[in-house]
Design a protein that fits this description.
Layout (H helix, E strand, L loop, with lengths): L6 E6 L2 H8 L9 E4 L6 E4 L1 H5 L12 H6 L3 E4 L2 H15 L6 E5 L2 E5 L8 H16 L3 E6 L2 H13 L6 E3 L6 H6 L11 H9 L5 H5 L3 H19 L17 E11 L2 H21 L2 E12 L9 E12 L2 H15 L6 E13 L13 H18 L37
Parallel strand pairs: 2-4, 7-8
Antiparallel strand pairs: 1-6, 1-7, 2-3, 5-6, 9-12, 10-11, 10-12
Helix pairs in contact: 4-5, 11-12
């Protein structure tokens, strides 16, 4: 049987706010909120903003009094910056472990195989120090025998200052104390419905869950729930994943910066989102057979409402941006209605087929070899010189419908014009 090694979860603290602070030190210790697309909802907060009672997912207008009173700094989401800073953090982690699983933009699991005889706590304190030194991003680290317990340890490492951001619970005599203090709703893999189920059966914390009957868990929470229980007992069941699994669906959608009645705006936006979805499709070496186009008005405004979508079946699997734009535009023609103020559009790609398993048709009229060469060349140029260096005319020029980002900070690490000046 393969030996199981300790694992650590490295989690960036208040990641979006921390990214803003890296290049603007005057923000240290100040309350910060980061807004969603169109600057409407709060999607991230610094600890200082949390202490003021600003909640996640709150509309900005509802907390404007708090923002003004306490001089809260407001930023539009800057995903280009956040994505690049995330990449830098992950590169740092690769210096300390040969096995790194990127779990999200601000989290990664790392295997501690090969360093079991080292003081794991001190080893991870050094990781924390180096990541901060090299990237400016503060992190918290939870160390445990399983991924689920590492998640739990990370939560306490972040919440309790006495751990200084690192908590090791491998063979800890206090493990039952941590489990007892953890509500079942806070356990990785336990969603809202399972939480309600467990509450009904008088199971309220992680320790009580570890004592539940295995047959009952499997019957009511499936094998996945049983794996979670085993993990809480210190039995590794969830393996490290080193390759990101291919998505089974890709959606590309945004709300508009301002509503529009123009069919041309709608067609431009749909073409733009189709191009973005096609890039993601090619990045995982897939082709698609189905494209869904959808649009809607703003349901939160007192205006005539309309929403609709259409599923377009492609004649054969493709990853070509030009071909997908052609069919998405036909979808717009089917569902667009005059006289409505449209607030959001998007596309959904499904029915994926791996590129190497795509079968051609005798009756296909497309020059797919030529199409593939053009697409590949555009991808190379856009990867080298930046997204949208080359783009299809159908995606528009001015794009006045685009998302608001009035308070976005510079893209310090990826755009020459935004480099800090000294």
């Amino acid at each position: 049987m393969k030996k199981k090694f300790p694992v650590a979860l490295v989690d960036c603290n208040n990641f979006y706010a921390s990214c803003e602070r890296v290049f603007n030190p005057k923000l240290n210790g100040k309350p910060i909120v980061v807004l969603s697309n169109n600057d409407g909802m709060i999607i991230a907060r610094s600890n200082e903003a949390k202490k003021l009672g600003i909640g996640i997912g709150e509309p900005l207008f509802k907390v404007e009094d708090i923002v003004r009173k306490h001089n809260v700094y407001i930023f539009s989401s800057n995903y280009t910056l956040y994505g690049d800073m995330s990449h830098r953090v992950m590169l740092c982690l690769e210096q300390f472990s040969r096995d790194v699983e990127i779990y999200s933009i601000d989290e990664a699991f790392i295997s501690l195989e090969g360093i079991e005889r080292t003081d794991l706590t001190e080893y991870c304190r050094n990781i924390k120090k180096i990541v901060k030194q090299w990237t400016g991003i503060p992190v918290s680290i939870g160390i445990a025998q399983t991924k689920t317990l590492a998640k739990l340890a990370n939560k306490y490492a972040k919440k309790n200052e006495k751990y200084d951001g690192v908590l090791n619970i491998v063979d800890s005599p206090k493990i039952n104390d941590y489990l007892e203090q953890t509500n079942v709703s806070e356990i990785w893999g336990i969603g809202r419905q399972y939480t309600k189920l467990l509450y009904r059966h008088n199971i309220h914390n992680a320790l009580e869950l570890t004592k539940a009957d295995d047959k009952w868990i499997k019957k009511n929470m499936t094998i996945m729930g049983l794996r979670t229980v085993f993990e809480l007992r210190g039995i590794p069941c969830i393996e490290m994943e080193y390759a990101i699994p291919a998505k089974k669906a890709i959606v590309s959608s945004r709300s508009f910066g301002k509503s529009t009645q123009s069919k041309q705006d709608i067609k431009e936006a749909v073409a733009f989102f189709t191009a973005r979805a096609a890039e993601k499709l090619r990045s995982q070496n897939s082709t698609t057979t189905l494209i869904t186009v959808f649009l809607r008005t703003n349901p939160f405004k007192d205006i005539p409402q309309y929403h609709n979508g259409v599923l377009v079946q492609l004649p054969m699997p493709t990853d070509s941006t030009s071909e997908l734009i052609y069919y998405s535009q036909k979808g717009v023609e089917q569902i667009f209605r005059e006289g409505y103020q449209y607030h959001k559009v998007g596309v959904l790609l499904t029915g994926f087929v791996p590129v190497d398993r795509t079968q051609l048709s005798l009756f296909d009229t497309e020059d797919r070899i030529k199409m593939a060469k053009i697409t590949e060349l555009m991808d190379v140029i856009n990867n080298e010189y930046g997204a949208d260096t080359l783009h299809y005319a159908a995606t528009g020029i001015k794009r006045e419908w685009r998302t608001k980002a009035e308070k976005r900070s510079p893209r310090y690490t990826t755009k020459w014009d935004d480099l800090p000046s000294v």
